[in-house]
Design brief:
Elements (H helix, E strand, L loop, with lengths): L2 H20 L4 H7 L4 H27 L22 E5 L2 E5 L5 H13 L2
Helix pairs in contact: 1-3
């Protein structure tokens, strides 16, 4: 199936799925009433959800690469010990300083974003 045909079918099924979900009826009852095969409905619902998920993932990576430097406004910093990183990473023109207490989840997200920075 070529890309244009695929896009047209996705658009067609998006409207069908939306109409069904907004009807207030069960999927089975709506499909019977509208003469649509229920298995085909669920097949296309999976396809549409997959496309939306991939689109969101792509947009998430694009949005995560926009950093804004924030200043810390805490008067107690003068009396506290300064941060001493356990790990210092240089990626391109960026420097990432980490403590050994950083969570694996956060580290994974940061490294994904940093790998996309040019």
């Amino acid at each position: 199936m070529d890309k244009i045909t695929h896009e047209m079918r996705l658009t067609h099924w998006k409207s069908i799925i939306s109409e069904c979900r907004n009807s207030g009826m069960s999927v089975r009852a709506w499909c019977i009433q509208n003469n649509i095969d229920e298995k085909r409905f669920y097949y296309w619902q999976r396809r549409v959800r997959g496309e939306v998920f991939e689109s969101l993932k792509k947009n998430e990576f694009q949005n995560q690469s926009n950093f804004v430097q924030l200043s810390v406004q805490n008067d107690n910093l003068k009396n506290s010990p300064s941060f001493k990183p356990d790990i210092v990473m240089h990626i391109g023109n960026n420097i990432l300083e980490l403590s050994n207490t950083v969570s694996e989840e956060l580290l994974s997200k940061v490294l994904k974003v940093m790998s996309n920075v040019k």
